Amino acid sequence: MASLYDLYVILLFISSKYAGSAAEILLSQKASEIANVGTSILLQCEVSGYNINDHHMSWVRQAPGAGTFEWLAAFRTGYTTHISESFKDRVTPSTSGSTAQLRINKLSSSDTATYYCARHRVISDIQLIQTGSEIKKPGETVKLTCKTSGYDFGSYGMNWVQQIPGKGLAWVGNINTETGNTVYASSFKGRFTITKDNSISTAYLEISSLKPEDTATYYCARHNENN
Known about the structure:
Elements: E1 10-11, E2 17-20, E3 25-29, E4 41-48, E5 57-62, E6 70-75, E7 82-83, E8 91-96, E9 99-104, E10 114-119, E11 127-130, E12 142-149, E13 158-163, E14 169-175, E15 182-184, E16 192-197, E17 202-207, E18 217-222
Antiparallel strand pairs: 1-10, 2-3, 3-4, 4-9, 5-6, 5-10, 6-7, 8-9, 11-12, 12-17, 13-14, 13-18, 14-15, 16-17
């Protein structure tokens, strides 16, 4: 998949925040919002650690039980506003101080979802291209590939993220592409191995002794820096 985002995606309906490396970049969102059908709602995402006007901010959402994300809009002060055709008449992205905002009008029951704000990284023809679908049997091993271009591969860490159908994102682990050091979430230690090949700007995720519960979509995501 092509990725133009830093790994700063935060659940709107969960009080949480992501600390981004040494720069302490934070995107903090409110907890659950409840509104009536036909009314409007203003979603907010407060940032710190960088100038909000230096990057586009996108809004995406995930309906309950959905395995995919739906992009709504992207906004940056002084630049063209981009809004999905499906939402052109109902959503308005904006910023106020250091806060990104998304107003949704004429709410319907179908708007019930988890909403995410995501800071764009600077566009420079960066690409992260992953292998297509893999079909394996329990007990086998699979090696997923993420080939990159458009930047210095060894200067940025690489994350792998798992999304089981109907569930949210789960961070698998990270590799420092300069040193090769890896860090894994406790639930993925043992059978999951992240490696890299700097000569071809490629990161790998190998999963051994496959289990049915490993069935998922796996994403690679470039980290803000090596750490």
